[in-house]
Structures are given as C-alpha cells and as structure tokens.
Amino acid sequence: MQIIMKSSRETHCHFCFSETPADVVFCPSCTIPIYCSKRCQEQSAGHISRDEDTNLGYSTNVANLSITSSCKSPRSKLFAEHRHECGGAHWAAVLPADVVLAGRIIAHSIVKRMPSGKSFAFSGPNLDLVHHYDQHSPANKLESHIYAIVLLLCLQNHYRSDLLWTEDSLSQPTGYTHGGQTRNQTSLELKLQSDMPKLVLLIFQIKVNSIAIVCMRSMDRGPEHTINRGFYVAEGAKMCSVEQVRVAQALYVSGSLFNHSCQPNVHAYFLSRAFVLRTTEFIKSGSPVELSYGPQVGEMHISERQKSLQENYYFSCQCSSCSELNLSDLVMNSFCCPQSNCLGAISESTYYRSKENFVNVSLGGSYVCKLSLPDVSKVDMDMENVAKSLLQNSGVSLNIDHGCCMSCRSCIDLSSALATSHREESTIDRLKKHTFLDKTLITEALQSLKQLKKLRHPYSKALAQAEDTIAEAFAKVGDQELARKHCEASIQILEKLYHPKHIIIAHELIKLVSILLSLGDGASAAATFAQAEAIFSLYYGSHVEKVLTYMGALKKAVIDV
Length: 561
What we know:
Blueprint: E1 2-4, E2 25-26, E3 34-35, H1 38-44, E4 62-64, H2 97-113, E5 120-121, H3 138-159, E6 163-164, E7 172-178, E8 181-187, H4 198-209, E9 211-218, E10 242-250, E11 259-260, E12 266-271, E13 274-279, E14 290-291, H5 302-313, H6 320-323, H7 327-331, E15 335-336, E16 345-346, E17 349-353, E18 358-363, E19 366-372, H8 381-386, H9 388-391, E20 398-400, H10 414-429, H11 439-455, H12 461-477, H13 480-497, H14 503-519, H15 522-540, H16 544-547, H17 550-560
Parallel strand pairs: 5-6, 11-14
Antiparallel strand pairs: 1-10, 2-3, 4-13, 7-8, 9-10, 12-13, 15-16, 17-18, 17-20, 18-19
Helix pairs in contact: 2-3, 2-4, 3-4, 10-11, 11-12, 12-13, 13-14, 14-15, 15-17
C-alpha cells in the first residue's frame, strides 16, 4: 500500500508517482488525486487485474515485492484505494501521511472482509512487523492515540454501520473513585498492553517499516523540472546534477523482512509501485541479503549512522562496517597531519585500542561503538598510512585522543581547525546561492579551497564537496577545463569514501560526462559514460533507462559528438 507525500501532491501522479504533465487527469469522484494518464487513473480505481502489468521479467538477481491487485466490494465495485477519502471534509489532506496510509490499509482490509450487504466485526489487519511501541516517547504515543481516534471516526463516517470494532477498541474503560463514587474513565494509557488497539500499533508499524519511494530530480533546472524529462547541456554552461527526491511513502511487508547493512549487498529501487531488489555483488548460499535503510558508509560517519538508526528504527547497527575499522570512517570528517610527509588522519573522535585488538570509539566524551581491527589482508596502503599507530603493534593498549594523528601521533588545535574549516567551507558554499557568478566570488572560493586543503585530510568529505561546488561554478561561467579538473578531483576522493563501483560514483561520472561534452571531448565522454553505465547496470540491470530516463538521450549525445 502506498501514498503520495503532501509535498508532491500537485506535481506527481498519485498512482505511478512520476512527474505529471501539464494536462492532468483527475479522480472522477473528487479533485484530490491527480494522475499522469487515464491508465493510471483506472489502475488507481482497481480496473487492472491481478495478472496485468506486473511482470518485470524473470531474473536471478531481481525480486519484485509488489503486485497490483484488485478486490471487489460487496456491491461488485472494484476497490479504489482512496474511495473512503472522497467527499466531505478532506481529512486525508490534513492528517500525516503515515496515518492516512494506515487508513488505506484498514480500508483495503474492510473491503476484503466485508460480507455482501452485511455488517461485520473487524479487528484490523494482522501484520507481522515490529512496532517498537515501548521505545517511543510518551508524547509520540499520545499523539498516535489521538490520530487513531480521529482516523477511526473518519472511517466510521464513511462505512457507517458496516464497520463495527468489537474485538479491540481504541480505549479501555477503567474505574476511578471521585467523591466516593466510582465512575468509568476512558484511558489512553501510555504503555503497551496486551489488548492495545491494533490501529494504534499499525500506525507505529508504518512509522518503523515504511519505505520512501524516490525519483531522480535535476538540481540544475529548478524544482519544477525533473531529470526524467531528458538530458540536456545548456549552452555548455552547466553540469548534469541529480538528486533523489522523496515523493511517496509505502509499506511493503516482504521488503520489511530484510535486515539493514551500512554496506548493503542489494540495491532497492522502484518501477512505478513495484519495489525491486537487485544484488550488487555475489552472495554465497546461506549468507544474509541486506539492504540499506538509508545510512551508508561513505555517506555518513559511523556515529551519525548509529544515531540515525537508533532514532528512526530503534536498533544499534552491528553490520560488518559498524563492527570493523574501515578507511571511510577514519577519514570522512578528519583533518590532515601537520607533518608534511605523513598521510595520517586526525579525528574529532578518541580511539582506544585494547590489548585484545579491539578499538573503542568515543565522540565528545560519549561512547560510540566498539570495533575490531581488520584482518591484515584487508589493510591496503591507504588505510595503513592513515592509521599506522592503530594497525601496528598488535596486542598493545593504545589511546589516540581527538586532535592527534592516528599515524605519527602529532597533534593540532582541533577547535581552531574546526572553526577555520567551517569558515572556508561557508565561503565556498556561497557559490551555490548565486545564479550569476562574478570573478571575485570564484577567486575567494579558490583561496578558501587552498586553505581547506591545508586543514582537511586529502580523503575528507568536506574537501570532496568543496571540489564539486567549485567545479559546478566553473561550469556555470563556461570554464569547462577547470570544471573538469575539480570534478575529477572530487570523484577521486569519493572513490576512497565509497568504492569505485558505488552508485554515487556513477552519478558523479554523469556530471563529468556533461562537462566533457561541453569541451567537445567525445572520446573521454564516451569512456566516462561507459564507466557510469556499467555501474548503473550493476544496480538497475535492464531497468537503467526506465529509472534514469535521461540515459538514452545522454548516450545519443555522446555518440553524436
């Protein structure tokens, strides 16, 4: 079951979630949902059978976890996912998306269970999914109870006498004494009880298990344009940049069964409403199949990943990347060693290595995690140069404080370095805020980049982002040669933080392709495009041009140069 996000209601189809054309199709019963075509409108109303339009083609490394189906109501009408939201007060436009999604799940279950022309007792769907009710704050629990009451009233108003909640209720009468008399009280207790209403738990199940449906949007043409409108190079003065935009929210019960990893071995994406998983590496028989719930190595530091997963999913990640020391986490937010001949990283975190060869990491005095040292065979030259002190002399306890080099143990004034780094980064970020750039802004940004290189580690993410911002600035003013230089520098850093075949690298390579096309360097553009296409094929297989619809036009542009 899916629902479009409020921010995308007027710009994206409410069924397939693609960007809508100028002439939209409305729901025949109300004007709330809009569709990109008559077909999507009919599918939303349930006119597509269970076997139609769901075959993605068989592949050994693809799993389709969504089936478009239709269910008939007692009056032989096909189920429309938002019919219970039509007419009257538009409560679905007011309530949060996860609450409205809960209403759709309930409504679908009602239609499936409702005997012809008769009232029935209904207790809600039984979803075998975690809800972590006991770990939510009292305020969140109270809020969800209130939303559940409002949602039930809205559903009762639509179904009238067809809906009778007899097995569970939203509140449990309890007795209390006042003035010597016993009265009945409706209690919204803030602790999980065995008879807690299923509707409340359903809302929490959606909060914890729902998946964001995303599309790719161009960052160069403004929010009104998306990358799936086609590739372009605007007079050779821009890079082709894209970002993921959350357009809808969905609950896939099968998809919720997969564990998280910060270095997943499967990639998740969407074809309309179909949730597709594709392996990105060989997985041995009996090994876990793991996807990412969002946080990934290279994208976030281990402390940020742990915090995000704890706050949103209520668990501490123990995947291989969160259990073993890795290069990306060592260098992502690090500073460079003051010794010119040392590639060691200086971190804001404190690392304590025990005699048992475990490393305890703390940040700002707070414990973050315990990591094992990688096997010698996994330690490459980069990692050894970055953290020589941690990796050598096994069996010896060692403490490396924040602000100290993990290789030669030289120290810097970390607070001063942080302040200077933030100031220089802010100067560079000013380039993003101006549509028209003058020579002074770019000159100042280049000076800041020079200072940043003296502070930040060569593999740090701050440096990669700075190089990317300056590359885009040079592309805007038409200096494609310098744009190429800084874009390539950014990619080289990102390959250290992620890995050379990560999908992030492919998106960055597409930026480089647009610059090379502007330079008229057809051979380099073709080679770079082939590299990006190979990575995208690893993640999307034969669906590359369905998900990234600009790829066909870009390929033609590369061939025509």
